Amino acid sequence: GSMTIVNPLTAWSLVEIAKDLGAKAIIQNAAAGALGQMIHRLAAKEGLQVIDIVRREDQKQTLENQGFENVIISENAKFERELRVRAGKINATVALDAVGGEITGTMAACMPNGSHVIVYGGLAGAACSVHPGSLIFQGQTVHGYWLSSYLAKKGALSLIRLSGKIQKLMHSELKSEVRQRYSLEQGEHAIKDYTQTMSGGKILITP
Question: Which domains can be identified in the chain, with CATH numbers?
Answer without folding.
Answer: 2-149 (3.40.50.720), 177-207 (no CATH)
